[in-house]
Design goal:
- By secondary structure, the chain is of the alpha/beta class.
- The chain is built from ten helices and eleven strands.
- The protein has two domains: about 90 residues, Leucine Dehydrogenase, chain A, domain 1 (Rossmann fold), CATH 3.40.50.10860; about 120 residues, NAD(P)-binding Rossmann-like Domain (Rossmann fold), CATH 3.40.50.
- Strands 1-11-8-7-5-6 form a six-stranded parallel sheet. A three-stranded parallel sheet has the order 3-2-4, sandwiched between helices.
- Helix 2 crosses helix 10.
- The protein binds guanine.
- Guanine binds next to strand 4 and helix 6.
């Protein structure tokens, strides 16, 4: 069994980003990312803090906006429109989920697609679906880069994706399909997840249920990508895979932490760098 070490790959990619950021800065361009956090959800605060720290390590300027849980949709839209008009800002990220009184789709659609470094705007979603170059959401992009780094070619493989969110499952299915895989996407209404995982060469899971994927549910030699992130009562951070037993049957597996998580952060930085190049170098 080989551990898919996202932590060390992310460190290598960060070094490449630093070189490229320095190159841009010599040309007078500072990649700049606005990060919007609404409310004080502890998990969202933790993710945003990791994103800001990683950006700063790589020389990407960060503009954090911490906003009240009670902000109105109109006020939030105004803030986004102002950031969108600001020529200095290359990327705008709105941490999800948003409070229930705010319609996420209106917020995401207010960001112009050129600054949508999270890849959540319908324009970018559509282009990813069509297999055309676009900003891909960070977690699916991180998964694809991790697989590629370990020379795992998904073409012709059976892939089971557990979780059909707009952030992870659906865009990951598009990227995998574009790369030639055959995809099954399971979700909350799927009656027999094991039926799909048992046939899969690659299982990707990200639903927030510790221990959901057990050894008896996978093929011998399967490749396991654990996108789950769960904090147990004893404080341990675990994914959605029963790691001890599944890792004995898998050929490759991501650890949690240290697998997909660091790849997600570094993919956001790659998208921000790309946005800066596209907006500021071509003029
Ligand atoms: N919430 C959970 N994952 C993500 C992500 O990748 N981006 C944003 N903006 N919010 C999230």
């Amino acid at each position: 069994m080989v551990l898919l070490d996202g932590k060390s790959l992310a460190e290598t990619i960060e070094k490449q980003i630093i070189i490229q950021t320095n190159f841009l800065k010599e040309k007078g361009v500072t990649p700049t990312l606005a990060v919007i956090l609404v409310g004080e959800d502890p998990a969202s605060c933790a993710y945003v803090s990791m994103k800001i720290k990683a950006s700063e390590r790589c020389g990407i300027r960060c503009i954090p906006k911490k906003l009240s849980q009670n902000i109105t949709q109109k006020e939030l839209l105004q803030i986004i429109q102002d950031l969108d008009k600001d020529e200095q800002i290359d990327g705008i990220l709105v941490q999800l989920p948003l409070p229930k009184h705010i319609e996420t789709k209106f917020i995401l659609e207010a960001i112009s697609y050129q600054k949508d470094v999270d890849g959540f705007h319908p324009f970018n979603i559509g282009r990813i679906l069509a297999g055309v170059e676009a900003f891909a959401p960070a977690t699916p992009l991180g998964v694809m880069n991790l697989l590629q780094h370990y020379n795992i070619n998904v073409s012709g493989k059976n892939v089971a994706i557990i979780g059909a969110s707009n952030i992870v499952g659906k865009p990951l299915a598009s990227l995998m399909l574009n790369a030639g895989a055959t995809i099954s996407v399971c979700h909350i209404l799927t009656q027999d997840i094991a039926f799909f995982t048992k046939k899969a060469d690659i299982v990707c899971v990200g639903v927030g249920k510790p221990g959901l994927i057990r050894a008896d549910m996978i093929q011998e030699g399967a490749i396991i990508i654990d996108i789950g992130m769960n904090r147990l009562n004893d404080g341990r951070l675990v994914g959605d895979v029963a790691f001890e037993s599944v890792s004995q049957k898998a050929s490759f597996i991501t650890p949690v932490p240290g697998g997909v998580g660091p790849m997600t952060i570094v993919s956001l930085l790659q998208n921000t760098l790309l946005a800066a190049k596209q907006r500021k170098l071509k003029k």
